Amino acid sequence: MELTVLGQTPEGETKSGCSTSACGTPSDQMSHLPEHIREKVHNHPCYSEEAHHHYARMHVAVAPACNIQCHYCNRKYDCANESRPGVVSELLTPDQAVRKVQAVAANVPQMTVLGIAGPGDPLANPERTFETFRRLAAETPDIKLCVSTNGLSLPDHVAALAEVNVDHVTITINCVDPDVGAKIYPWIFWKNRRIHGRKAAEILIERQQLGLEMLVERGILVKVNSVMIPGVNDKHLQEVSKVVKSKGAFLHNVMPLIAEAEHGTFYGVMGQRGPNKTELQELQDSCSGDMNMMRHCRQCRADAVGLLGEDRGDEFTMEKVEVMEIDYQAAMEKRAKLHESIEAHREADKIKVMPESNFPDSTARPVKMAVATKSAGVINEHFGHASEFLVYEASPAGVRFISHRKVPQYCTGADTCDENGESIMDKIVAALDDCETVLAAKIGIEPWGRLEAEGILPNGEHAMEPIEDAIKAVYLEMYEDGRLAVSLQKAQISA
Predict the structure, then answer these.
(1) What is the distance of C-alpha 29 from the center of its chain?
(2) How do residues 43-59 score in pLDDT, each as one tens digit?
(3) Judging by DSSP bridges, how do beta strands 193-196 and 187-190 pair with one another?
(4) pTM of the model
(5) What is the distance between the alpha carbons of residues 445 and 368, in angstroms, rounded to a whole number?
(6) Is the pLDDT score of 82 beyond 80?
(7) How many CB atoms are located within 10 Å of the residue 328 CB?
(8) Other CB atoms within 10 A of residue 78 CB
(9) DSSP letter assigned to residue 150
(10) Residue 166 and residue 177: Cα distance in Å, rounded?
């Protein structure tokens, strides 16, 4: 999708606000790339922000062992009540993994990507990982293959990854300074011995950078994940972004630390806090000038299934998969037809240039808007059914995606308070307190009133419209109503 922007000049330069190269828009990740790379990214929901509205992914949990320890990680098996990396409900054999991929691909035709992301490190389990990939490359040739790794063993396996047609690799790189790394990694297991402290971090960083260079040399796309840890590496991640970009990484995903004590991680037990939404956005914005920035990551489980933002894993337990009848050839044909339909829809819904005369003021302030959507890049979710909202920022420079905000579903019964005295609506308002408008397919009377009282304008007038088009229309309405000329408080807006 080619993103066009409000206030765009004929030459394609923005009049004000962030440049298109810094905004992290879908077109940024595409337009400057060779055609063969654009083709790789086009329907990959993790590598393309726009594609994640339309296409699904799955992870298979075949890699239990890990060769490093991170202070933010605690791998949990047979765990269905946490949604974060390193957590799985079932460990699979390669045979089970292949069977499950075929079952999911037959029943979730939006699926385009299979990844191995744990629950340990895939390359610390090379036999299980590569047997799975070899089988899938032969038996599900229409599925893209991806792997996520900490990078310690990566240089040893780059050639093997290329041989099994893995063409997307994610490396978690949290630092390029061993002194910072020593605060994140208590140890690594390297050459049959455990190494601690700064020396461990030094080896890990060297191996990560070597692996990155080797992947880029082979034309394999590399995404870098970094966990933002306030007070540890938050001031350092801009340097990480510059370094990995200089070595050819395609995309940088700065993720917030998950550190609730109940997860049992070292950071969680020791009280290390995660970043708030303002800190995270500011760091992502500061990095995005150097690197394409991924903002739509959901920090998925190692056995995630479905569109980003949903998890259909319960539908595909091995107990259920083993009794499914699967005609994979028919499934491939069905999926190909659906993908053709999706691409026709994407083409038809390309954002049109809004005439410059309709938005003449380049000094208008930016506005954040929250959107309720299920999929397809349109506003198609009832406010009360949303378990997350997508947050966008509109400005004279255009519309850019900022983040997703997980919330409890409002329509789950009585809006009772928890042990801290917070109601469901309190939690939703807190998640969206930096937004001025909420766009949903429908909004009930009671939440409508509460949103208005909090200075967040509810809007149900753009149901089934493309998200960016609706946001542009609302932003233009706000401008024409005189609400964008100066920096107003939300309380003034609602008045």
Answers:
(1) 14
(2) 666 766 666 677 888 88
(3) antiparallel
(4) 0.75
(5) 23
(6) no
(7) 16
(8) 9
(9) -
(10) 29
